[in-house]
Specification:
The structure holds two protein chains of two kinds. By secondary structure, chain A is α+β, with helices and mostly antiparallel strands. In chain A, about 25% of the residues lie in helices and about 50% in strands. Chain A has two domains: about 35 residues, no CATH class; about 60 residues, Immunoglobulin-like. A six-stranded antiparallel beta sheet of chain A has the order 1-2-6-5-4-3, with no helix packed on it. Chain B is an alpha+beta fold. Chain B is built from ten helices and 22 strands. In chain B, helix 2 packs antiparallel against helix 4. Classes of the chains: A alpha+beta, B alpha+beta. Strand 5 of chain A pairs antiparallel with strand 2 of chain B.
C-alpha cells in the first residue's frame, strides 16, 4: 500500500526536473527559487517584466520572446518588445505585454 | 543616470548580430558576464540589434566563431572612442586643458569690486583705501579676511556706522551704512558766562529755554546780535531788587522765521548745441594690463563723448579681468539761438526750484514763498522771496554788570 502511494507521488511530479528537491523544500518550507532555482517573474503594470533564474533566450521576435527556465519555457507575447538589459542574473523586458504563458 | 555616465566613460558599441545561431551567442555572453542592453530583433538583417560594452566586445570575439555569427558595428560611443578619434588633435586637447587651468587660476582672484550705500563718502575714497590696504582689484581671495576688513573700515572711517564685506565668485561687495554727521559739541562753551544771540534778523517762532534767562517771546522781531537768552540769572530780594547775580552758559532752542531772497537773470540769447549727425564708435579691449584698441577715435572739432565699460562675466558672479570699453562720439556745432518767452521762464523756474530744494534737503520748512518772473527782449529776470523756519541762536559772551554796593546806595539816599 505504501509503495503504491510513492508511485502515485512520483507520477504526479514526473514533469518536475528535481522532484526530490521539491519535496525536500516543501518539507523544510524553503522558498522554491532558492532551493530549486525556479524562475521568478516580476511584472510591473503591462509595460515591464523582470525575469530571474532563466537559462537563455530560445527565440526573440517583435511580438514574442521565448525564454528557457529550469522546468519550462516562459513565453512573453506583446507589441514592440525589447530587452532593456540582459545579464547573468536577470533580464528586463519592456514593451506592451499582452500575455505570459508557460510551455512545458 | 549614473549607469549611463559609467557606460559613456568606459565606452560601448551599438552592433547588429547576424548568423547561424545569434540566440546562442547571447546566452554565451551572459554566462561570461558580458553586459548586453537595448536588445531588439532586426528583421531586415535577420538578427538582433543591441549595445555591448567595449570590453565585452573584445571578450566575445571567440564566441562569434563558435556560434558562427557576425557582428557589425553600427556606432561607437563613449570617451575611449572619442579620444582615439581625435588623437591627432593633441594641441586642441592641450588648449582645452590650458583654458580650464587659466579659468581656475582666475577664479582665485578678485576682479570686480562693488561698493554700495555711500552718501558722504565717495566710492573713489573707499577704492583708494582698499588699494592702500592692498585689497583691491587683482588681490588673491585667500588673503582677504572679510571680518578684519570690516573692522578696519569702521576704525578708519568714523562716519561708517555699519559695513559688510563679502566675496561672491570673483566679486567683492562692500556695503556701507553711514551715520548722520554728529553735532560739533567741542566748540560749544562748557563754562563761563554765555548768552544766546540772534545770528540774523528774524521773527521768533519758538523758544525753549533749558538754562539762562529768556529775553524774547514768540512773535517778537529781533535784529542780528540781539540777546535772546541771557547767561545772567538775577536773584531778587523781598523788595524785588537784584540781590545777587549768577552767570551760566545759556542753553536753549530758538527758532526764527527768516526771509531769504532769490534773484537770477537769464539771457535769452544763447549758444545752442546742434548735433551734426556724425557719430563714431570705437572699442578698446583690456586684458589684465594689456590694451588692444579696435578702431581709431574720430577727430571731430567738437564732440560729445560717452564711454562705457563692459566686464566679462562668465557666470553670475564670476568676473574675468577682460574689459570692453565702448566709446561713442557725437559731433556737434554751436549755433546762436534765442529762447522763447516760455522756454526762458521754464529755465528760470528750474533754477528757482533748485534753490527751494536746498532747503527741503536740509529739512528746513518753508512757510511762505513768492516769486515773480519778468521777461524782456534780452533777459528773463526771476525774483523770489521765501520765509523759512531755521535755528537762529548762536553764542556770545555775557556782559557782566556790577551790582551797586550798600555804601553807594546809602550815599545816593
Amino acid at each position: 500500500m505504501r509503495k503504491k502511494y510513492w508511485k502515485q507521488v512520483t507520477n504526479e511530479n514526473s514533469r518536475s526536473a528535481y522532484p526530490h528537491r521539491e519535496r525536500l523544500a516543501d518539507g523544510l518550507e524553503l522558498p522554491k527559487d532558492v532551493s530549486c532555482g525556479m524562475a521568478i517573474v516580476t511584472i510591473t503594470g503591462r509595460r515591464s517584466l523582470v525575469l530571474e533564474h532563466y537559462q537563455g533566450i530560445v527565440s526573440f521576435d517583435d511580438d514574442c520572446i521565448r525564454i528557457r527556465t529550469r522546468d519550462c519555457n516562459v513565453c512573453v507575447s506583446g507589441d514592440r518588445l525589447k530587452v532593456d538589459y540582459y545579464t547573468n542574473e536577470e533580464m528586463k523586458i519592456v514593451g506592451v505585454i499582452r500575455q505570459i504563458s508557460y510551455e512545458v | 543616470m549614473l549607469l549611463s555616465i559609467l557606460k559613456l566613460v568606459q565606452g560601448y558599441l551599438q552592433v547588429t548580430l547576424t548568423g547561424h545561431a545569434p540566440e546562442r551567442f547571447l546566452n554565451f555572453c551572459v554566462r561570461r558576464d558580458i553586459l548586453i542592453w537595448n536588445l531588439c530583433p532586426n528583421k531586415a538583417a535577420g538578427g538582433y540589434d543591441f549595445c555591448i560594452s567595449r570590453k565585452g566586445f573584445y571578450a566575445s570575439e571567440d564566441l562569434l566563431k563558435r556560434t558562427r555569427t557576425e557582428m557589425k558595428i553600427r556606432k561607437k560611443c563613449g570617451v575611449p572612442f572619442f579620444l582615439y578619434r581625435y588623437r591627432a588633435r593633441k594641441l586642441f586637447i592641450i588648449g582645452i586643458l590650458l583654458c580650464m587651468f587659466l579659468l581656475w587660476n582666475c577664479s582665485r582672484y578678485i576682479w570686480k569690486i562693488e561698493i554700495n550705500g555711500t552718501s558722504e563718502l565717495s566710492e573713489d575714497m573707499i577704492q583708494t583705501w582698499l588699494e592702500r590696504q592692498e585689497r583691491s582689484y587683482g588681490t588673491r581671495k585667500s588673503v582677504i579676511d572679510c571680518a578684519d576688513l570690516e573692522n578696519r573700515l569702521r576704525t578708519d572711517f568714523e562716519t561708517i556706522a555699519w559695513t559688510s564685506v563679502r566675496l561672491e565668485g570673483t566679486k567683492m561687495t562692500v556695503d556701507i551704512q553711514e551715520s548722520l554727521p554728529e553735532v560739533d559739541t567741542a566748540s560749544l562753551p562748557t563754562d563761563g558766562a554765555w548768552d544766546i544771540v540772534a545770528s540774523e534778523e528774524a521773527q521768533i517762532d519758538a523758544i525753549f529755554t533749558r538754562r539762562g534767562t529768556p529775553l524774547v517771546e514768540k512773535g517778537m522781531t529781533v535784529s542780528q546780535g540781539a540777546v535772546l537768552v541771557s547767561g545772567r540769572l538775577d536773584i531778587l530780594d523781598d523788595n524785588g531788587e537784584v540781590a545777587k547775580q549768577h552767570y551760566v552758559v545759556s542753553d536753549a532752542d530758538v527758532t526764527g522765521v527768516v526771509t531769504r531772497d532769490y534773484e537770477a537773470s537769464l539771457p535769452r540769447d544763447y549758444q545752442k548745441k546742434i548735433y551734426t549727425g556724425d557719430e563714431h564708435t570705437s572699442y578698446l579691449v583690456q586684458v589684465g594690463n594689456m590694451q588692444i584698441p579696435i578702431g581709431r577715435k574720430a577727430a571731430y572739432e567738437a564732440c560729445e563723448t560717452t564711454a562705457s565699460d563692459h566686464q566679462m562675466e562668465l557666470l553670475p558672479g564670476f568676473y574675468l579681468p577682460v574689459h570692453l570699453f565702448v566709446t561713442s562720439q557725437r559731433a556737434y556745432v554751436y549755433r546762436p539761438e534765442t529762447y522763447t518767452k516760455e522756454e526762458a521762464e521754464q529755465h528760470a523756474t528750474a533754477g528757482w526750484e533748485l534753490f527751494l530744494e536746498k532747503f527741503t534737503q536740509k529739512g528746513i520748512p518753508i512757510i511762505v514763498k513768492n516769486v515773480k518772473i519778468e521777461t524782456n527782449e534780452k533777459n528773463c529776470m526771476i525774483r523770489g522771496t521765501i520765509e523759512a523756519k531755521i535755528p537762529i541762536g548762536t553764542y556770545a559772551p555775557t556782559q557782566r554788570v556790577e551790582l551797586p554796593t550798600a555804601q553807594e546806595d546809602d550815599g545816593m539816599q
